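[User] I have long wanted to understand how a fold can be written as tokens. Those tokens are not coordinates but codes from a learned vocabulary of shapes. Could you go through the record with me and say what the backbone is doing? Thank you; the sequence and its tokens follow:
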Amino acid sequence: MADKKARPILQKKFSDQLYENGFPIQGSFKAWAVEQMIDPFIIVSCALLIPLAVIITYYDVRYRRIPNAFVLATLISGLALNAVSSGLRGMGASLEGCLLAFILMFMLHVFGAMGAGDVKLFAAIGSVTGAELVIPTFLVVILTGGLLALVSVIRAGAFRTTMQRVTQILVGLLPGWPMPRFAVPSDKRLTIPYGVAITFGSIISLALFRV
């Protein structure tokens, strides 16, 4: 990351690039953002991720699925945003973020802790945040998802069963012990809309680590 002395210059350069490439950021807004030491990248990223979080929350909570169209749109937007901000270097960081995010979430998918839609969604968000923020974002998403899971299992009255499964997974990580695989519950109350944790956790991560 740039140091504090260089940050206003980089922020102004980025906001100018956004304007020149068709992003309608007004001069007064640019001046305010630079004066307040707010990275315009954060503002544009949040303008993308906040509506996405609302849409994903609706679909994942109601239908327990994440439409591929929104995932693809997020991926393309992330690549474009980073390309506009930093050229080929930014696009490279975006692709690296996408790949790293996919690998991290796919590991959880292998253990049966995450759905395929969640893997694709986090990979797409990795293209927005870039490789530098993927791991901090992953940790925030895990914490956010843990809180969401705790609330869900308590409301569903399945706390004991869930703790037993968690114990089985932890034991499965030990050498010589098989990793358990659990069937997806038919009762939606016993499943976690992890897309909610991924999108809102990503916004929290941007606010914490990008500023």
